[in-house]
């Protein structure tokens, strides 16, 4: 796999990308095998509003190679694949039509989990930051990577927001729920809720919560059967009036493609 950018010759996509809105789909692959990765790519390509993808929990083995090749076969013309050291998981960005230009996110810890790209939709400049926050990790290093990565993301967000040009979208699997989450999960500490709050403090709005202030939704379920809303999408608060839709799609989880629901975001460019 090449360094950051795979500009591959792609087939014509099944659906035409919007020229007036940023239509983003957040999708956790659950470290898919090659066969399941190809089924995931087929499902993603079949979604009319999946012009931009934020794909999380992408490994470094055969499954990731199969996923990226399949996305290209299904018409995703631009794919941003960060290099991950020591076979760590990473986040990947993909676009049906708009070229993704890698930009530095400012996230200095585990940057392969925070790929950032600039693109243009019509005349609208867009910055897209994908995030895949580490899980708690092994007992001997419990929460070390998660804390360090979250701190680096929180530190980087204000500069991204203050740039102020065009549309800023930050999305991915944060491995954290919002304060007041239903049901309550005692496993989350104040430092994790502070990470969620840091988005609002930096000038970002939770798109789903903005449109659905009282809705109870979950994107992942633990062994106990209790749900967690850990996949999120944020838009710069100054542009929150442009948020047209933000909804969880449960079909991928129900079909056994992955253990996460997808999250679909639609934001008007102007």
TrEMBL record:
<protein>
    <submittedName>
        <fullName>Endonuclease</fullName>
    </submittedName>
</protein>
<keyword id="KW-0540">Nuclease</keyword>
<keyword id="KW-0255">Endonuclease</keyword>
<feature type="domain" description="Endonuclease/exonuclease/phosphatase">
    <location>
        <begin position="26"/>
        <end position="237"/>
    </location>
</feature>
<dbReference type="GO" id="GO:0004519">
    <property type="term" value="F:endonuclease activity"/>
</dbReference>
<dbReference type="InterPro" id="IPR005135">
    <property type="entry name" value="Endo/exonuclease/phosphatase"/>
</dbReference>
<dbReference type="Pfam" id="PF03372">
    <property type="entry name" value="Exo_endo_phos"/>
</dbReference>
<dbReference type="InterPro" id="IPR036691">
    <property type="entry name" value="Endo/exonu/phosph_ase_sf"/>
</dbReference>
<keyword id="KW-0378">Hydrolase</keyword>
